[in-house]
Design goal:
By secondary structure, this protein is an alpha/beta fold. It has one domain: 3-Layer(aba) Sandwich (Rossmann fold), CATH 3.40.50.1470. Helix content is 35%, strand content 20%. It has a seven-stranded mixed β-sheet with strand order 2-3-4-1-5-7-6, with helices on both faces. Strand 2 and strand 3 form a beta hairpin. The longest helix is centred in the C-terminal third of the chain and has 24 residues. It is globular, with a radius of gyration of 16 Å. Belongs to the PTH family. Its main location: cytoplasm. Monomer. It catalyses: an N-acyl-L-alpha-aminoacyl-tRNA + H2O = an N-acyl-L-amino acid + a tRNA + H(+).
Amino acid sequence: MSTDHTWLVVGLGNPGPGYAGHRHNVGAMVLDVLGARVGGSFKSHKARAAVLEGRLGVRPGGAPGPRAVLAKPATYMNESGGPVAGLSQFFKVDPAQLVVVHDELDIPYGQIRLKLGGGEGGHNGLRSITRSVGTKDYLRVRVGIGRPPGRMDAADYVLRDFSATERKDLGVTLEEAADAVEALAHEGLLAAQGRFHAPTA
């Protein structure tokens, strides 16, 4: 993959401390992990997002990874598209170099899945981004949160904190999702899918 491209990596969530631990905010949590790896701190950007510029990981042989803009929209989930479109224009990033990290109800808790394009599965953040950038053809790192138990409404489920049991493994899941973002930028989609979609023993 060329090192000339700048990647825009967006972690979805809702702003403010009241939402910080919710399942719906797992995308933003992954960005915090990536931010810690890059070093430095997120700063407010005029496109209504917290932004951190740096290099994504280290290439084989020790060279720094590709340039990346890490971003957490400062808007509510259903308005994520405006900041993403604004940052894409500001940093001149094509949809092919846009990676959106988000929670996914249809994947078991703790599993990571990668894909390009496709439907939004009722996810308001993805819907807003697709509308604003004008295409569904951007990369997604989907972090499984599982389906709600019993008759709990999905909207209530995503706006609750992870359970105590889930929180025991959450750190590992966030690190794996951060690894998946780096793999996408370093190796491309197919190679990264081969690594993260392999069944675990």
